[in-house]
Amino acid sequence: MRYLTRVIPVRTERHLEFVDVTDEVAQVVAEANVREGFAVVFSRHSTAGIRINEHEPLLLEDMARLLEQMVPTGNYRHDDLTVRTVNLTEDERVNGHSHCRSLLLGASETVPVSAGCLLLGRWQRVFLVELDGPRSREFVVQVIGGA
Questions:
Q1: Which of 32, 39, 92, 142 has the smallest CB count inside 10 Å?
Q2: What's the burial of 99, exposed, middle or buried (CB within 10 Å: 0-12/13-18/19+)?
Q3: How far, CA to CA in Å, does 49 sit from each of 57, 74, 135, 146?
Q4: What is the CATH number of domain 2-75+93-146?
């Protein structure tokens, strides 16, 4: 059994952004030299998710608009710093909506690996979905399997 874990940094540019990280994931799979197994891709942030979908610009706009419509910016208890007392930083952001949006996405995806390749469908790509950018982010790729 082989395994390899990599933490990969990403710098996002927009508040809500779909960052295609498929090539980085495939590189870790190649580096792991795993022929059969799986790759787990995990976001290390509570305001960024990992999703698999198609990399088509109009679709990405549609998905961003859907997230904005389902969970609009607005009045969230998390953002009321007169009552909130935990997990505060000096540069605290108004981001209750970003945390709520992440509930809809999830923090990870698992992709099968066969013959040393990700078994994604024809149009499927792996995205880190930024919900509170721009920021410096990290995602984890863990590959497990056999030679």
A1: 92
A2: middle
A3: 18, 21, 14, 28
A4: 2.60.120.460
